[in-house]
Specification:
By secondary structure, the protein is of the alpha+beta class. It has 17 helices and 21 strands. It has four domains: 220 residues, no CATH class; 124 residues, no CATH class; 94 residues, Sandwich (Immunoglobulin-like); 103 residues, no CATH class. Helix 2 runs parallel beside helix 4, helix 3 runs parallel beside helix 16 and helix 14 runs antiparallel to helix 15.
Amino acid sequence: MGGKHRWNRRQWISSAATAAGAAAIVPGRGFASLGRVFGNAASGPVRDAVDTKLKAFPLSQVRLRRGVFLDQLESNQSFIESLPNDRLLHTFRLTAGIPSTADPLGGWEHPRGELRGHFAGGHVLSACALLQAATGDDAIKQKGNVLVAELAKCQEKLNQGGYLGAYPTSFYERLKEGKRVWAPFYTYHKILAGHLDMYTLCGNEQALSTAEKMAGWVDSYLKPVGDEQWAKMQMVEFGGMEEALFNLYAITGKEQHLALARRFDHKKFFDPLAEGKDELKGLHANTNIPKVIGAARGYELTGEQRYHDIANYFWHEVVSERTYCTGGTSNDEGWRDDPGKFADQLGEAAEECCCGYNLLKLTRHLFSWTGEPATMDYYERTLFNSRLGTEDTDGMKMYYVSLMPGLWRTFGTRFDSFWCCTGTGAEEFGKFGDTIYFHDGQGLYVNLFIASELSWPEKKVTVVQETGFPEEEGTSIMIKTAAPVKMPVHVRAPYWATRGVTVSVNGKKQEVTARPSSYFTLDRTWNDGDKIQVAMPMGLHLAPLPDEPTLQAAMYGPLVLAGRLGTKGLTHEHVYGPLGPDEARNIPVPPLTGSVDAPDWVEQVKGQTLAFQTVGQKSEIDVSPFYQVNDERYTVYWKVNRKSA
């Protein structure tokens, strides 16, 4: 988020910090005064206007079992638990005139930082709520409940029509006046969304009350703002305000929240997308992805085709024309070139972690609409390569996943980072169970191969998935039921399963059609203990850049592979803290010789799981799944020169 603000090049605490890159966003049209005052009486939750083909299970019905995803969730939870509430509340209390002697946090939460509060009063609430839903841990829920109660005290003490923030409303006056300010509504969104998560996932009624008051302040703030002025203000990043307000409307049924959500439509950005035009070049990537998530939610709630067309075109265009082999997008936080142009976009800041997080959120919406296997193929690729591995064993998060050959991963520190990607990472690593399983009116969809257990009380069924994937090239799915149950079980055959998929039930091979990038169906009456076993042999394949096929990444199944290049010149300070990946400190990566059509320059080490090495070169280089390379230099993309005849 926030434009070209590199870790080692910006003053995090500068009062003049602005979203310079976001200024590239073309202005949108605001609405004039809302015109009429809607009644405040709640009509209750609103049903979606669109009956989606598939529906996700509540996160609380899925439990991760031991494996890499549960390990990462637990590291994240330990990080969240290690943050004292008094330190998180410090700047909120000071802004409200409530004394605080807590040690201030650093980085983006510094008392002079212009995004302070985005994590401390926003992402952390979402993380607490998601972790409680994912684990059932009441201690993490209580941490969130205490924060909600203390933030409500700050809101009451401020006494400014429902405003809640860790900085004064003067930041929003600067926004109105066109003065330099970083991104106040970006921060507001995080706080609002955190409270909504505490309500929807943890049942905290006070959180909903705070959120409604916050929305009321935004309504009052924007009422006197005309279209032309609002268009200029929309040039400054405003996060997922539209999505959050749509969600607030869905919860309460109050029409004023729907109208306010629509006011955050960014017409100038949305119009080309609605017409099927890619005018993304020059725009800040993560400023805009959340807007499209808002459009997707708007479609579901209103049924308006325009919202559908915006989200649908954007997803397909970005995924097909603007993502790397990892599934991530952006270079130096923006879309810097025309569609399909990547050869000069392997930068030190390519890609931003927030982009992967938000593209996964958008993908879940599209998958629910159609059930298209390709959307879940993309989800898997991004989850395993752009998200997994961006947290260390202590729960520290990354900002950029550098794709420049010869660089390394860089992580934040516990009390002195709190980047945007620290926040989205804290959410991502708390909700790994939310997409493994979906369902329709009849049966189950198994989308991801992650060790987990699903409770489906409506069917009186428990589904246990036992797998070591991706170390294990397949999965086992057991049905537990007190009484026989007839239902179809749909299992994804991934795009990379070109060597065939073998399926058996209780040891008996099944004759099923399991083409790559499809779902195969087992429709039968299931008895307690029935077990589905799926074997999906993985193979090596190439992911070249579309505009330069000699720049190649190697993949094994869904996994991007990375060459291990050692630790030369790296210190703890390079890996942790403000010194991010710096192209001035990279090392040269020798080109390879091989085919540009087949991965003949890399092979699997015999007898070892997920261990590879280059072959046919002057020297051998060890190669591993990208998510496993956290402590040394690496390259994902290689220059491959064609073999001489």
